Amino acid sequence: MQPMLELRQINTHYGAIRAACDVSLQVRQGEIVSLIGANGAGKTTLLMTVCGNPRASSGSVWFEGENITNLPSHLIMRKGIAISPEGRRVFPDLTVTENLKMGGFFLDKTAIEAGMEHVFGLFPRLRERAHQRAGLMSGGEQQMLAIGRALMSKPRLLLLDEPTLGLAPLVIAQIFEIIQAIRSEGVTVFLVEQNANKALHIADRGYVLENGHVVLEDTGANLLTNPEVRKAYLGA
Ligand code: ATP
Q: Domain named ABC transporter: which ranges (predicted)?
């Protein structure tokens, strides 16, 4: 079966810095795939390369059998991919509802209302805060909003960049539960996480990135027991 997302030999540069080095990976429909690695390994770069910003300097990105490497970001999003970016990036001066509308900017009114109901079903907290300015909410609530905003476009593939960074343990557990709930609704998830333990626990498969290179690829369960992963990423 053709993978939903495929990166073939991707190289991504920032000027002279090569942040992704010949990366090939696949995400199949219905999977949660986790990408783990140290700070600066190139995880964000890879997710953003899928979104077309920055662009790969060589290699190709395929989504549902189509080469999307050179498409502008807004067209990539319309293909059925959405991202909840690192640092959440909600619009602080806009309300929850207004932020959600931004995630569905290309939808008609009915689809926006349906999307909002769907997001409020997943995140009852956001319904309670619907008219609150996003900048006044807690980190966990802002993260829920960032994920909710990404879901507004009804993506088939959701990219999540560090969704639990800086959050309290209880909130982290909630976010991981929500990621699993999103997958059980049929959305495929490609997750970048510092929290390797939890990320691998919920993952069907995972990739380990070091200095821009994929150095390991296996099921989540196997990576959790891999001695190198345990030593480098699980504090064993
Ligand atoms: P972190 O968890 O710290 O975000 P990461 O694994 O996501 O790390 P990237 O943010 O992708 O890693 O960074 C990979 C490399 O690219 C690093 O050396 C970083 O300094 C560099 N880099 C990232 N963004 C830029 C940029 N806009 N300009 C120049 N270099 C960058």
A: 5-236
CATH dotted code for 1-80+157-163+187-235? 3.40.50.300
Ligand 1 atom with the smallest distance to the CA of 37 is: 6
Name the segment(s) of the chain with CATH classification 3.40.50.300.
Answer: 1-80+157-163+187-235
- What ipTM describes this predicted complex? 0.94
Closest approach atom of ligand 1 to CA 86: 4
Q: How far apart are CA 214 and CA 23, in angstroms?
A: 6
Distance of CA 32 to the CA centre of its chain: 10
Atom of ligand 1 nearest to the CA of 162: 2
pLDDT tens digits for the chain (236 residues)? Answer: 789 999 999 999 999 999 999 999 999 999 999 999 999 999 999 999 999 999 999 999 999 999 999 899 999 999 999 999 988 789 999 999 999 999 988 889 999 999 999 999 999 999 999 999 999 999 999 999 999 999 999 999 999 999 999 999 999 999 999 999 999 999 999 999 989 999 999 999 999 999 999 999 999 999 999 999 999 999 87
How far is the C-alpha of 128 from the C-alpha of 195, rounded, in Å? 29
